[in-house]
Amino acid sequence: MNEYIVGIDIGSSSVCAAAGKIDKHSEIQIMGITSSNCIGVKRGIVVDIDNTSESIKRCISSLERMVDTKITEAYIALPGGISELVWNKGVVAVSSEDREIKENDVKRVLKASKIINIPNDKEIIGVIPQQYIIDGYDKIKDPIGMCGLRLEVDSQIILAQSTVVNNIFKSVNKAGIKVLGVVFEPIAVSGVVLKEEEIQRGIALVDAGSDSINIYIYKGGSLKSISTLPLGGDIITNDIAVCLKIPILEAEKLKIKYGSVAENSFDDNFKVEVNANYNNKVKVDCNILNQIIEARVEELFSLINRELSKSEYYDELSGIVIVGGGMALINGIEEFGKDVLGKLVRVGIPKYIGAASPLYVTAVGIVKDVSNSIKLKNIPGVNPSKNNNLPDYKNIIEDENEKEMESENKTNGFISRIKDFFTDFF
């Protein structure tokens, strides 16, 4: 099992899992990827542990057949939609006599940045440093090895409701899978569909799921904001079912196979026969189908645009990237989105053979994120915290996390080993 890195994405309509392996060229290869339907999650929150765990079991069982090995361990994603970003500052004095900043100083300043007032029902699950400041000099990405008297950090504190996170862990554990670590979803997804230049210049990532749309804005090389709309692709499916008087399942099939918002989608009209209620068959006019889809997609884009316009970075956004199965699979979505939003729109697709679908971005993103850390640690003489491709917080706080988790595991026992733990959970 150690030769594979497994990532699990638990979504509202499906569970996706990907298995990757680092090849001889130190590149990650996706060896298997699959998905299964899920009805136990609503808007990123587990509402039925039994159904969710069964979906995970089916998904992992299918993945096991693909890679021909037993899977008992995996990494999971923490959804951005259930999280909250809080900005805070930490300040410490450099402890060494020669005033050289050591890794322990960075750990101390990150810990100091977590001293904030939070509601009783929430927990700090991560801290992402945005910049370090040494004796008043700012915009420092990696202070280790530099000299100074005073070390400061401007950081993002990630908050989430502890019960929500616990239920995700319980669902995975009940499926017989040990959680090796957690990856923050906005970071995982951005790693496989966004370019570094885009993240620096300004980009919006729209993760349109079945019942919610998460909007992440990146600028200056980091995540700046998270917002969520309580609507998703299911509302398009529901419109089709109601207007055409067909079952939801048939409406979803029609949307995926024939749905289009392209300019020429109304030119060649044809009818499709589908199963209606009581085993009756009806013929659906594809022009009418696409008019229904277009009306609702335009409304969703308008709501997305309204949400984006609230951001102080709106004018600096170079474009919008759409992922997820709620809208990204609709034919012509890029040009249609450009017309409505007034910005360049593209569908985010992982550049891996067999995984080139917007449905799989999170699962693939988890595998890639984990592999980046593992292969760096296996290279002699390389300090992962000084590698630009790996955010500092993933390694800087890792040792502290492992110590905290050892103590935590003695009481709750639901994670017995944390390896490459990427967020400061609990």
Would you identify the CATH H-level superfamily of the domain at 5-81 and 163-193 and 354-412?
ATPase, nucleotide binding domain
Mean pLDDT over all positions: 85
> How would you spell out the order of helices and strands?
EEEEEHEEHEEEHEHHEEEHHEEHEHEHHH
Tell me roughly what share of residues is in helical segments.
Answer: 25-40%
CATH architecture of the domain at 5-81 and 163-193 and 354-412: 2-Layer Sandwich
**CATH topology of the domain at 5-81 and 163-193 and 354-412, what is it called?**
Nucleotidyltransferase, domain 5
Q: What portion of residues belong to β-strands?
A: 25-35%
Described by the principal axes of the CA atoms, the overall outline is globular
Count of DSSP strands: 18
Instruction: State the end-to-end distance.
Output: 27 Å
As laid out across the biggest beta sheet, the strand order is 3-2-1-6-11
Rg from Cα: 23 Å
Structural class: alpha+beta
Oligomer: single chain
Family: Belongs to the FtsA/MreB family.
Protein name: Cell division protein FtsA
Main location: membrane
Membrane topology: Peripheral membrane protein
